[in-house]
Input
Amino acid sequence: MVASDRAVPLLAVVRGVAQQLDLAPGVGAGTCSKENTMSVPAPVGPLGPRIPRRAALLTPPALLGLAACGPNASGGSDDSGDGTTLRFYWWGNTTRDAQTNEAADLYLEEHPELTISREPTDWGGYWDKLATQVAGGDTPDVMQMDEGYLAEYSSRGVLLDMGGTAFDPAQFDPSALDAGKVEGTLYAVNAGVNAPVLLANPAVFEEAGVEMPDDTTWTWDDLVEIAARITESTPEGTYGVQQLGIQGDPNQSVFLRQLGGEKFDGSSLGFTAEQLTQWFDLAVRLQEAGACPGADAAVEESGQTVDQSMFAVGTVALQSQWSNQLVSFDNLLDGTVRMLRLPSMTGSAADAKLWYKASMYFAVAADSALQEEAVEFVDWLTNSLDAGRILLAERGVPANLEVREAIAGELGESDLKVFDYIDAIAEELGDPPPITPPGGGAVGDAMQRAMEEVLFGRVSVADGVAAAIAESESALS
Amino acid sequence: MSTTIPGREAPAPPSVATTARARPSRLARALPRTRRQRQMFWWGLFFTSPAIIGLVFFTGGPVIVSAVNSFTDANLLGGSRNWVGLENYSRLLQDDQWWLSLFNTFFLTVISVPLGIAVALGLALLLNWRVRGIGVYRVIFYLPSIVPIVASAVVWAYVLNPQYGVLNNVLGLVGIEGPGWLSDPAWSKPALILFGLWGMGNLMVILLAGLQGVPQDLLEQASLDGAGVWQRFRNVTVPFISPHLLFALITGLIAGFQYFTPAFVLTGGSGDPAGSTLVSGVYLYQSAFYNYELGYSSAIGWVLFVLIAIISIVAYRLVGRRVYYGGAS
Output
């Protein structure tokens, strides 16, 4: 161990070099925009326990600074150092990336003083990466947001309150606008409207010689029976329906809503063990009737890309999705895909309790150095007809009614199907479900884990339900 | 390396304890005394400063911050951070998922460490033969170890794919219908263990080096005395490579408890199927990056650290005293 008087120059060297490298954001925790409500004890360990007071005072903020904020936190990141680069982070696919880039290019023609750093990624790594950037004080100026994360991020002060800004919601469908509010505050702007749907592949129905069901009157029992018949009348390896239990949401939420529950109620679960048991029972029935693939095939399917999924290659007739996803499946199946309402308990579509969800949102970082520019860009993306004509319905049906009307004539057949479906169910909708509370993401994981245990026959339905509820409740508490 | 033969006592090396009184302590000897030494000391520090700075800032700093965080309700996304005392630690004890992750970690470690050592030793014994082209064989078996683990895990995701994977196709040729390796909870752990064996090259090389230090004359002597293959292996080879085996055991245990990358890459960090690949490292990651509970995940990390420390020390004490250092002291 080095004696303390020798530690002073060592620390000075360390600090000097760190400052040269712009690693230590100066003295005092106040330079960091994140709240540091606690002090960190003087470092005891690598440098020895007896560090002179001056050195001890200087070091912790440097450590804390490194841990709590990135280069961006004390005002401006490297790439926005000139104050003109807007960072735009989204998840997507090749179609969305191309359209979004085209829209951004058009926007820059009107705003030559700006540049937009486009940062698309896939859904799989999106949230890990965003959380890491936020933790590093490097939140993108404009980011795509999802309902499942909205409450979490807004409650942590990451997102800008769009209420008092230049964003103009006048042309928005009011309920679509409300979907971006958390406890009355508008934190995110609806980028497109979505609804739960069952996609049907008519070719598989035909092959099985089974009639396409009437989706305004069918029940869950009909679904099990029809899907089992398809499995029976097709070659081995072709099935009637995906394992809805492992696909999870939106099916699970639709089913629970029809029983009078909701996935969440405030910051706790919105359903009973008895309601969840019925859902697990349905999944077991699908499996036992042979209506869906076995548990291991179903688990494998959940990690599959769109073009390799059983539905896209024609080995399953029905698969649940969000409505804006139709477009990519329709492309792969030559425009033949049909959109069906999910079944109901009563055999009446009016009781199906579907709802309009924001497929995604645009949100602005609360600590963005380019707040005005970011808000203006979001306003343009959602409110301008020019942007609407480029983005079309890929992110869902536009929430701005004026844009929705203006682009209706320019849509391809797949997009039109989505528009028609959204229109057709308008009169049958249930109330929008309560927003996913912080910690709610873990609930989906817990449900899926328990469902897999049950479907692999490792635990009984009763034990699986109990485990799912216990795990979910501890994640929410 | 000396070639002391068991039974013939070598003089005991001078131990530090017996000479401590006569000479200055180790610490004092390490410190610079003359002016020239002092100068060299600072130059030495200067030239090692990149490593020291890296260690202090990128390892030391986070270690301290995570220790502090484990007593708070820190959230990855920021916001307020409050002291919660031991709450994170007491929550661990009631967390079924954490117990599941510990069970999975133990299970994988207990199976894969001995199995890995056995396979690496077996390969090392084969590759210790003096046959033509042995260098080529050694390279072939070592190659997988220099492929980055993420890259090889991605490749194995294809190898293990039940439909178009190589493994099940080969099994199919001999009439065995392969399981859904990574989608069936009964087969996911064996799949991970199998993948672990593929990267045994480093250990194999270390054991090979140990085998080359086994004195040939002793093996010949034993052979003349009528010892069979097994007896020679058990009574001559094993004692001489026992320090290498101890090293393999301890590093294997530590790596086993820190197991993360293959499980994360092969299952996308989900712990699927049915939580069967949810090891402690993955659960820690989920807590921090999926659930944003930085405080809780720090507590998971620290408990894991203490567990690794205890188990390493126990293993070292239990096995360490049976190790024979006569071969290489």
Notes: Chain A touches chain B through 60 residues (CB under 8 Å). The first strand of chain A starts at residue 85 and ends at 91. Residues 76-193+358-411 of chain A form a domain with the D-Maltodextrin-Binding Protein; domain 2 fold (CATH 3.40.190.10). Residues 1-81 of chain A have pLDDT under 50 and may be disordered.
